[in-house]
Fold this sequence. Notes:
mainly alpha
Amino acid sequence: MMNVFKKEYALFLLKNILYIQQNKEKPEIVKMYSDCIIAISGIEKLDEQTRVIVTDVYFKRYTWQEVMEKRFVSHTTIARCRKKALNAVMHEFETNRRIA
């Protein structure tokens, strides 16, 4: 069974696949989507609660208030999850930069 985060990521890519195909000659578009994949791989490594909240805020585009009501979490928890996700993404970019 596909977890919520992978399902939302798959939907995100499917929604944008035509755009990617139409603009694949543009290096900035290719870079943007490769960066998205790097960011997603960093977020995938986080705990379930953080992944779910990040998915709600950044992929489903819920407001913080909607997430607070839906997930029964505080504003501080959302902020903490956002910070964890940003740190994970930055770490993933740093790791990929060293490998490349």
